[in-house]
């Protein structure tokens, strides 16, 4: 599965074929400053546009930055701008996305450090804030936006040019979707690193661009124990299997940009489903017919065919670039060494009738009912999501068996990434949907007779906002393991600022609970990520607040004694500082567990809920895994909440319990620092 989201990004293809003016050549040099660097201003005039106009700035080209670009707007179509002060430079406000132009600040002496708020479209070549040296027009540093109007802070180390005459250049040479860039609150010197409240900005931007050594620790937002692309984009996990003893993880991947594009399959493997070794890209789409051709290799699965690693996937053909082509077909590719794959062979050339919403994401499995290979393919028609079923004896010739399962119109119009498997005496169907603009990972538990799945119970796999396109597999130990794209199609992607986007969730073991729900827990090997001594408290009463510890990558295992807790609501603040936190709340009266990211930093502000059932002795066990830009919460009864959260400040790393009125009785709480999951060999 792969798709893109609106607004603006639906116009991406048209924008990419627009004429581009290269920005690699130096700009014309400015006249030398006769008074010398010592007489230069310490920063640009009107650094936050608080005069309400372009005082101190000069329009040097075009109409994108006319007087109307200085805006007092506090919100846009997706929420607040998060600008500073009363004004900011909104590149869309003056003349929309189609206008182009450049804007230059006044000259100032380069400090040791410079920071600013930036937002708007992502296009490193045509949308930039640049630090330009006056003497020769050299572009010393540049930064593009992130395809979002919400501002984030870029921090530059400008020490190499300290004292030289420089200025900022805001460049818009892009038209069409996201054809603008925004700027606010330029800061220099010590103020560049700290907020007005004294907290330290996390260093995003220049300091974390790709290096030959592939340093996964430099970026303060990059997860340390979740699989991410070093650069580029990933979404759905694909081809999950344990093959020749090693766990295989493929991912939808576009290496050319930190955003959706012509899909490849990234590849990593692991000895334990926790530590991951990056391997060469496994599947690559054909050379595009043109810049707007998004044809690629969509999602799929893997099986072991008598020692041959065999993958099935959707071949997507962009019919705008290839008129008359069938947009979605199924192909098979194989590998005997696990890294090099044959060219794909088409095995299903046309979708069956009743597939108007799409036909993609084949999931292969050996059917214990009749011993044949089966393939479940996601689809939908007439407002109802569905799954088609095919059968084969050799993985090459497939016969259509009919509709495996179908919705009633209340669970989305297209069921993506279907996955059918036996578990604890029942059958489980996973499928992903978009319902009213919300991405959901659903499941159903029921029976299967070899041709039809009959649901007995339905549920949401994870109550958080960032689990989608889940895929499972049976490992060599007989466990049913699962991972998912730890994001969704509506999520903000602040990490685009450092050239990458997307992460896969921790691998989880699936099980059926006593009341028939689909439960999950972190795979046991997560214990091996421990990178230092744990901090443990036992049998403590909390009234007010108690900090357990700090850390960007930590695991908290805690047991709450609810029978001796008098507080109505127990709160756990994660990634916490005086300015922000991701908040986990449990309400005793209702059993509601809420994960709240409304004041968590740069990410998507939202609240997510699930129901947590205490144990028979009145205790509630929580297993909370906090990474640099994610939180995963597991309850003792198998419920889960997952969300991405991107703190603004270095100090936002505390883990602390708080109560309002009443007391919390902690039976135990253990905080363990976790290390990197990256394997280098």
Task: Summarize the entry for a quick read.
The protein is an all-beta fold and 681 residues long. It has 1 helix and 47 strands.
Main beta-sheet annotation: 6 strands, antiparallel
- Total domains: 3
Number of helices: 1
Low-confidence stretches: 2-26, 32-37
* The named CATH superfamily of the largest domain: Glycosyl hydrolase domain, family 43
Report strand %.
over 45%
**Rg, alpha carbons:** 26 Å
How far apart are the first and last residues' alpha carbons, in Å? 30 Å
Helical percentage: under 10%
CATH class of the largest domain: Mainly Beta
Shape: globular
- Secondary-structure-derived class: mainly beta
Give me the count of strands: 47
CATH topology of the largest domain: Tachylectin-2, Chain A
CATH architectural category of the largest domain: 5 Propeller
């Amino acid at each position: 599965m792969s798709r893109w989201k609106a607004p603006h990004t639906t116009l991406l293809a048209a924008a990419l074929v627009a004429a581009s003016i290269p920005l690699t050549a130096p700009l014309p040099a400015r006249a030398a400053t006769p008074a010398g660097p010592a007489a230069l201003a310490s920063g640009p005039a009107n650094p936050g546009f608080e005069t309400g106009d372009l005082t101190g700035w000069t329009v040097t080209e075009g109409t994108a930055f006319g007087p109307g670009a200085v805006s007092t707007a506090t919100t846009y179509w997706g929420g607040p701008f998060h600008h500073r002060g009363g004004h900011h430079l909104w590149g869309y406000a003056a003349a929309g996305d189609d206008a182009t132009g450049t804007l230059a600040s006044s000259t100032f002496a380069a400090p040791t450090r410079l920071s600013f708020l930036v937002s708007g479209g992502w296009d490193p070549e045509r949308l930039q804030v640049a630090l330009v040296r006056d003497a020769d027009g050299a572009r010393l540093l540049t930064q593009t936006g992130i395809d979002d109007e919400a501002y984030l802070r870029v921090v530059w180390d400008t020490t190499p040019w300290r004292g030289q005459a420089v200025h900022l250049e805001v460049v818009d040479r892009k038209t069409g979707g996201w054809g603008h860039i925004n700027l606010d609150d330029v800061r220099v010197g010590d103020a560049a690193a700290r907020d007005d409240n004294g907290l330290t900005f996390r260093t995003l931007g220049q300091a974390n661009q790709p290096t030959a050594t592939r340093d996964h620790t430099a970026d303060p937002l990059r997860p340390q124990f979740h699989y991410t692309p070093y650069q580029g984009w990933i979404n759905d996990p694909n081809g999950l299997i344990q093959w020749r003893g090693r766990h295989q993880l493929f991912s939808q991947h576009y290496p050319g940009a930190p955003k959706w594009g012509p899909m490849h399959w990234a590849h990593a493997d692991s000895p334990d489903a926790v530590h991951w070794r990056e391997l060469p890209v496994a599947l690559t789409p054909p050379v595009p017919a043109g810049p707007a051709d998004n044809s690629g290799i969509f999602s799929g699965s893997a099986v072991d065919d008598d020692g041959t690693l065999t993958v099935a996937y959707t071949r997507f053909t962009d019919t705008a670039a290839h008129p008359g082509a069938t947009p979605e077909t199924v192909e098979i590719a194989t590998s005997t060494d696990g890294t090099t794959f044959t060219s794909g062979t088409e095995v299903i050339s046309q979708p069956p009738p009743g597939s108007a919403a799409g036909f993609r994401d084949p999931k292969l499995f050996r059917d214990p009912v009749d011993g044949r290979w089966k393939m479940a393919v996601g689809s939908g028609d007439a407002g109802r999501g569905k799954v088609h079923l095919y059968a084969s004896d050799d993985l090459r010739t497939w016969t259509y068996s009919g509709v495996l399962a179908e919705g009633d119109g209340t669970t989305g119009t297209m069921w993506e990434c279907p996955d059918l498997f036996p578990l604890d005496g029942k059958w489980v169907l996973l499928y992903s949907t978009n319902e009213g603009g919300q991405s959901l990972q659903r499941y159903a538990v029921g029976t299967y007779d070899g041709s039809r799945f009959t649901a007995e119970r339905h549920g949401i796999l994870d109550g958080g906002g960032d689990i989608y396109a889940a895929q499972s597999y049976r490992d060599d130990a007989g466990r049913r393991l699962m991972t998912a794209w730890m994001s969704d199609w509506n999520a903000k992607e602040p990490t685009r600022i450092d050239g990458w986007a997307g992460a896969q969730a921790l691998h989880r073991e699936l099980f059926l609970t006593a009341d028939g729900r689909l439960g999950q827990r972190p795979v046991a090997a997560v214990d091996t990520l421990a990178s230092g001594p744990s901090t443990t408290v036992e049998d403590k009463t909390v009234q007010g607040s108690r900090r357990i510890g700090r850390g960007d990558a930590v695991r908290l295992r805690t047991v709450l004694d609810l029978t001796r807790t008098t507080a109505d609501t127990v709160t756990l603040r994660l990634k916490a500082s005086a300015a922000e936190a991701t908040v986990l709340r449990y309400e005793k009266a209702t059993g509601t567990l809420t994960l709240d990211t409304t004041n968590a930093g740069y990410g998507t502000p939202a609240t997510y809920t699930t129901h947590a059932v205490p144990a028979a002795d009145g205790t509630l066990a929580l297993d909370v895994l906090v990474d640099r830009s994610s939180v995963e919460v597991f309850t003792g009864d198998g419920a889960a909440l997952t969300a991405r959260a991107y703190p603004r400040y270095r100090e936002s790393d505390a883990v602390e319990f708080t109560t309002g009125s009443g007391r919390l009785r902690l039976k135990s709480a253990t905080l363990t620092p976790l290390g990197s999951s990256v394997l280098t060999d």
